[in-house]
Amino acid sequence: MPLTPEQQAEVERLRDETQATRRATVPALEEILYQALPVLDHGFVRIIDYMGDDAAVVQAARVSYGRGTKRVQEDRGLIRYLLRHRHTTPFEMCEIKLHVKLPIFVARQWIRHRTANVNEYSGRYSIMDREFYIPAPEHLAAQSRSNRQGRGNLLEGEEAAEVLELLKRDAAQSYADYQSMLNETDSGEIIDPGRKGLARELARMNLPVNFYTQWYWKTDLHNLLHFLSLRADPHAQYEIRAYAEAMLEAAKRWVPLTFEAYEDYIAGGAQLSRQGLEVTRRLLAGEQVEQEDSGLSPREWRELMGLLGRGQS
Amino acid sequence: MPLTPEQQAEVERLRDETQATRRATVPALEEILYQALPVLDHGFVRIIDYMGDDAAVVQAARVSYGRGTKRVQEDRGLIRYLLRHRHTTPFEMCEIKLHVKLPIFVARQWIRHRTANVNEYSGRYSIMDREFYIPAPEHLAAQSRSNRQGRGNLLEGEEAAEVLELLKRDAAQSYADYQSMLNETDSGEIIDPGRKGLARELARMNLPVNFYTQWYWKTDLHNLLHFLSLRADPHAQYEIRAYAEAMLEAAKRWVPLTFEAYEDYIAGGAQLSRQGLEVTRRLLAGEQVEQEDSGLSPREWRELMGLLGRGQS
Amino acid sequence: MPLTPEQQAEVERLRDETQATRRATVPALEEILYQALPVLDHGFVRIIDYMGDDAAVVQAARVSYGRGTKRVQEDRGLIRYLLRHRHTTPFEMCEIKLHVKLPIFVARQWIRHRTANVNEYSGRYSIMDREFYIPAPEHLAAQSRSNRQGRGNLLEGEEAAEVLELLKRDAAQSYADYQSMLNETDSGEIIDPGRKGLARELARMNLPVNFYTQWYWKTDLHNLLHFLSLRADPHAQYEIRAYAEAMLEAAKRWVPLTFEAYEDYIAGGAQLSRQGLEVTRRLLAGEQVEQEDSGLSPREWRELMGLLGRGQS
Amino acid sequence: MPLTPEQQAEVERLRDETQATRRATVPALEEILYQALPVLDHGFVRIIDYMGDDAAVVQAARVSYGRGTKRVQEDRGLIRYLLRHRHTTPFEMCEIKLHVKLPIFVARQWIRHRTANVNEYSGRYSIMDREFYIPAPEHLAAQSRSNRQGRGNLLEGEEAAEVLELLKRDAAQSYADYQSMLNETDSGEIIDPGRKGLARELARMNLPVNFYTQWYWKTDLHNLLHFLSLRADPHAQYEIRAYAEAMLEAAKRWVPLTFEAYEDYIAGGAQLSRQGLEVTRRLLAGEQVEQEDSGLSPREWRELMGLLGRGQS
Questions:
Q1: Rounded distance, CA D227 to CA D221, Å?
Q2: Which residue in A61, C54, C256, C303 is deepest, having the highest Cβ count within 10 Å?
Q3: How many other C-beta atoms are found inside a 10 Å radius of the C-beta of residue A299?
Q4: pLDDT, mean of residues D287-312
């Protein structure tokens, strides 16, 4: 379970309080506010705060004095037009803030998105928790042979068992030695009064990158969608994709019209190259086209045929 | 008056609606939400939305599961510590969104702050309003003689009258010709059916930079304070300072503890140089120091003596 | 002519000096370094400096100890792979710096690209030149009827002549009054010693947005390509497109492999929506599809048919 | 030694090649271009490329047609003025690119500086090297008692020996198990043909954060100075400070006038608060001031007295 009973109680206290506001409010998102949406074995995403809604996108695009909404159909049309034509600035007018608990190696991928605000739990200042990520057996994949950056078939039997064993053993050993160097027990008591204890900022260097860290993370809707389009993609590493998928659900509650447009124009669409477009035109004109005379590399040809539903053609 | 009756009615409609929310809420800021705070002769700042409060700064700094607040004194201490030691990231966890009406030349200074989101009224798409800024007589200053980038004494009498006359006449003429080129009246009617009317994106090039534009502008608390520290400063041009001053009032309502710390550590403080610090130490040690042996330029010396309350010394 | 003889002499002096460097160097770009590439009636783009080349993209992508280049074919393949798959960070490792002279209304569109560095000529500090943009007759377009943000047919005959006349007259009048308020002639002499002269930061508010300003502007290759994809696009206003086109030529000299990939995968390609992709698949499968059962709006249908070379179908 | 002979040979090849350029060039920085400046036990900083020099700051501030330099004294004065008055944009006109090898925990602090470009070695795609950071005995500090985020006295004797032993043992074990899970030896040979080998992106999660990674990192001069002001500060963790110190040396070679101003106005100066300034004025006026009636907290009082050279007063 990702939260301790004390943490869960704090969350419940927050959820019990309600204030009156004149601001744009989204009941479907308020429903899950502050709750820990579980991700991986010990991680979570919690929606802490948000600013704006679908109508706020419209309001900003129109630089209007009132709320964006005239009629929902009209707002929907404008939102779809904006997203289709890459008029991205109105989507920056909505903002969302998350509390995330995630393995360090996921955090290192995530932080590459620079247009965001971050406050991370400090291992210089505080003691790291004894929590680390161990993949579920169904995610224990071998190195892909066709794609140097990716996963292939699952490990099985003895090999899988040994990998899990090694990961657990090394994490446990690293943490035990972390405590020993700190000279403090789990409950914060001094182990050996004759020792000084290594500085926290040094001792933490012994912990592997599958240990969990936490941060507050805040970004605008445009950059959230950009994050999701890269990290909910099948090419993303499974572990960060698991976070992106939890965030997709939150986005759908928050801005349903924008989310629908995102699915139609970004996530569900595809970019064709100049040559790919030309091949498509020739095919539609009834021409027989082969990879060799397509201007596409074999790999691009395969990808295009996949997109166009021409499988092995 | 900056708002038309129709616009004012839209504002009132927004102010009349109240929703329940679980989010952090600031009653003192809600009081003025959506209202036009007047600036210059036709401009305004309207607070449209906000995210977070003083406690949200603390919450993020502690990466906590509950609200930031423990006790107000403790929160105040942490906020002051963070600001004093340039731990700026927790202040990025609060966000504010404004609707601003401002002269183009002010907008051109304002937009230099890049860590912000902007949606501006489009002169390509819409017809610009007939509204332009004319300085009040008490702001009609001559070029400073001592400072190439600044204002000196006020213009008076005939010279002042003529300047105001020229500014008004040219703005009126430019706008009349703008309409004439568009071939449209104020109320959007075609003037001469035999003409095509110049494209809006071209006709607007005839308007001087004292015409008003509008935008939605959104930034985080850290960047808001940075904006204010530069633009509410006496070295800023008066016209943008007028906007910064309206925003200071809003910031004070929004995050009173952060605002107090900002006044103590940023706005009301001063940066001493290495040499300035050395001079201060020598003076405190009872030494007689002159500019010539201070390591400071005459101008830096004057500035330092001013800071230290030593006037003409 | 965009440069005065004195300015031209300064440029020539710079071009005559050559230093030895160990850095990556691009002879084709060095050829035009510092020269004013003319744009519009008085504007220009000057390439002032650059960092990196195609090989530097490869070098960063591989985090290598030596130069990127192994063999040109291999570098080309990697660059195309990176651009196709949106691995944009290696393109940020090249940087370019420009000196640009441009009308204020173009500068206002340009500055919306925030990931760039800018130093603009200051109208607070210096006197603005008497230079303004007047469109050539072949760019004097009427407002489009089908597209609220765009141009339609050209103005002709008397209407065109009158528009040009108004633009010139108002610009001349505004500038004459600017000087009069400053109480300074072109050559910087005081006009009337009995007057103080209005502060520069105030007087400049009388100038229309077709007056020229100047700035130094610097960005990385990824953001340059993003700028070009939006501003060299037919939907961009002609005047900023004219600058983008001059910059395309410079980009082609600078990073020919990246530029080729940009043309194939970004500028010359197209994004299909989920529905657009589905329609394409159905058409390729021989199905008869009409707009009504396509899931596309009439406008999106028209755009898709255009892309697929099916004109009026 | 941080570089292998093959890597060293690549560096030498780069250093041996010289091209002619019309760009601003800095011989003192060219001298050390591409060389590995050693940091910590296995890390380094290599200067890969740069754009601009002190004169380029001046050139941009003046938006000039020629080189910035008129006379060195004049340039020096302007650079000092710009830095003193927080006119930071001209410093953004210079750019520098580094290749850095650094422990992951240092990389995690470094990456928080968002206005920079980064390409990191990929543990998804490539096998991580067997290189990890072990502190030198003179940096093996205990947790500070007075400051929760810092170091106190050095560990000694048996405790120090055991800490070093644990760090080495756990790093070696983690790497051995990393290889075992990958099913590959150091030289890339399959260990057990009957096994599949865990995907690289998963196996690397076993490595502690003292393992070395590498990246290309590029930023502008303003942001470099900001980085240095925070990371070369005594409050920064020693390990990142070691990198900042190597970068200070490079900055001094690159832009000596800017660097001198940085030392005088930023690194060597101090920010006084409103209350601190008031206390200083009262002391200079001969008044006796105590902490209790100073408006300062005990801690702020101590810091101010330290700054003013009043030690224990």
A1: 10
A2: C54
A3: 11
A4: 91
Q: Which residues of C make up each annotated binding site?
A: 89, 109-114, 120-124, 204, 220-222, 226, 231
DSSP assignment of B220-248 = EHHHHHHHHHHHSSTTS-HHHHHHHHHHH
- When pLDDT is cut at 50, 70 and 90, the band that residue D72 belongs to is confident
What's residue D66's pLDDT? 86
Query: D226: which residues sit within 8 A by CB, 6+ positions away?
Result: D113
As beta bridge partners, residue A38 has: A44
- Band (D89; pLDDT cuts 50, 70, 90): very high
Q: Report residue A10: phi and psi, to 5°.
A: -65, -45
Six-digit token string for A37: 């949406």
CA distance D156 to D137: 8
- Beta strand extents in C210-257 (DSSP E only): 212-220
| CATH code 3.90.1300.10 for D5-128+210-267 | no
Model confidence at A312: pLDDT above 60: no
Q: What region does D68 belong to: left with phi over 0, alpha with psi -120 to 50, or beta?
A: alpha
Would you give the distance in Å from CA A212 to the centre of its chain? 15
Q: State residue D232's pLDDT score.
A: 96
CB spacing of B50 vs A50 below 8 angstroms: no
In the DSSP assignment, the letter for residue D128 is P
**C45 close to C243: Cβ distance less than 8 angstroms:** yes
Please tell me which of the candidates D84, D265, D309 has its beta carbon nearest to residue B284.
D309
Total Cβ atoms within 10 A of residue A73: 8
pLDDT at A313: 44
What ipTM was estimated for this complex?
Answer: 0.95
- pLDDT attached to residue D313: 45
Distance, CA of A274 to CA of A272 (rounded, Å): 7
Q: How far apart are CA C211 and CA C41, in angstroms?
A: 11
Query: Could you say which residues from 109 to 138 on chain D have a Cβ atom under 8 Å away from some Cβ of chain B?
Result: 112
Q: Which helix (H) or strand (E) holds B272?
A: strand B270-272
The owner of tokens 């393992």 is D211
The string of pLDDT tens digits covering residues C287-305 is: 999 999 999 999 999 999 9
Distance from CA of D225 to the nearest CA of B (A): 15
How far is the C-alpha of C266 from the C-alpha of B307, rounded, in Å? 56
The crossing angle, in degrees rounded to 10, of helices D54-61 and D72-84 is 70
CA dist D7 and C62 (Å) reads 14
φ/ψ bin of A40: left (φ > 0), alpha (ψ from -120 to 50), beta (otherwise): left
CA angle, A109 then A115 then A120, to 5°: 60
Residue type, D189: E
Domain boundaries B5-128+211-267, corresponding CATH code = 3.30.1360.170
Instruction: Please give the DSSP secondary-structure letter assigned to residue C155.
Output: P
DSSP states of C186-217: TTS-BS-TT---B-HHHHGGGSBTTBEEEEEE
pLDDT band at D312 (very low <50, low <70, confident <90, very high): low
Task: Answer left, alpha or beta for residue B311, where phi above 0 means left and psi between -120 and 50 means alpha.
Answer: left
Phi/psi at B288 (nearest 5 deg)? Answer: -90, 120
- Most distant CA pair in chain D: distance in Å? 85
Cα of C44 to nearest chain D Cα, Å = 12
Q: Which residues of D37-58 are buried (b: 16+ CB within 10 A; e: fewer)?
A: bbbbebbbbbbbbbbbbbbbbb
Structure tokens given for B194: 């035999």
- pLDDT, tens digit, 9 for 90 and up, residues A264-301: 999 999 999 999 999 999 999 999 999 999 999 999 99
User: From CA B116, how far away is CA D2, in angstroms rounded?
Assistant: 42
Hey, of B78, B82, B98, B119, which one would you mutate to test binding to chain A, going by the most A CBs within 10 A of its CB? B119
Q: Which two tokens stand for residue B261?
A: 């710390």
